[in-house]
Backbone:
């Protein structure tokens, strides 16, 4: 199955026209939706969805992200009855504004995020950060930028304990236009605090199917250094989704 999906994406990447642009658009937005349903000894329903937007103005370069994951499973209990339970329920939103200086590749950024993961060690995790952003690479095929600066993390555990702390936040974002119809993106971020170090990473390969519709294969990792004994430090998510480019 994995080989078939990969072969499909590679085939789409060789098709004509799509990601290459003569001039950057002032506003872009795309929506992503993935759905998986399985039956048999274990019945599962999994939905992942997201919206990503980018705004490029004369003095500002802004990024917005909203994403969610829901997974429900049905298994047969010891008494022969079906038992339904939710195995994943996550919501994440973030926004970053980059104010351009005299050299537009050098910016001052402001960042905010909120995460509600019902089955993690935390009721919620929220972050505010300010600092320096720089675009260190930009050509026809590659773009790379990083951000680093101080911030504050607002955290409440499942036990109701507050773990608010001063943090240092660092992140990178890389895009490689493999061809006119395919691209690879990689994002990394880490928030280092006295109570916890929270890190996120996503690798994604996107290929155009037709017009504004694309297919995306992605792999995400969420890591928290300080969790309860019955919780895992690392959560991963592998998804194949359809992506629609609205603008």
Residues:
């Amino acid at each position: 199955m994995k080989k078939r999906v990969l072969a499909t994406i590679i085939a789409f990447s060789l098709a004509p026209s799509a990601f290459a642009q003569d001039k950057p658009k002032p506003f872009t937005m795309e929506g992503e939706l993935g759905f998986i349903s399985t039956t048999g000894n274990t019945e599962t329903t999994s939905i992942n969805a997201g919206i990503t937007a980018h705004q490029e103005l004369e003095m500002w370069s802004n990024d917005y992200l909203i994403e969610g994951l829901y997974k429900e499973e049905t298994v047969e209990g010891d008494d022969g009855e079906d038992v339904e339970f939710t195995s994943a329920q996550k919501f994440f939103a973030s926004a970053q504004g980059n104010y351009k200086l005299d050299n537009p590749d050098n910016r001052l950024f402001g960042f905010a995020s909120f995460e509600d993961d019902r089955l993690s060690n935390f009721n919620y995790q929220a972050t505010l950060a300010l600092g320096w952003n720089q675009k260190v690479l930009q050509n026809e095929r590659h773009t790379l930028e990083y951000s680093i600066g101080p911030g504050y993390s607002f955290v409440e555990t499942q036990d109701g304990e507050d773990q608010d702390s001063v943090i240092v936040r660092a992140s990178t974002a890389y895009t490689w236009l493999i061809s006119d119809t395919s691209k690879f993106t990689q994002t990394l971020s880490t928030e280092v605090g006295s109570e916890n170090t929270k890190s996120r990473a996503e690798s994604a390969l996107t290929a155009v199917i037709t017009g504004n519709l694309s297919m995306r294969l992605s792999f995400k990792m969420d890591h928290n250094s300080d969790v309860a004994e019955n919780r895992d430090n690392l959560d991963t998510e592998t998804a194949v989704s359809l992506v629609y480019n609205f603008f």
Remarks:
- Residues 121 and 228 are 6 Å apart (CA to CA).
- The chain has one domain: 2-15+31-245.
- The first strand starts at residue 27 and ends at 38.
- Residues 1-17 have pLDDT under 50 and may be disordered.
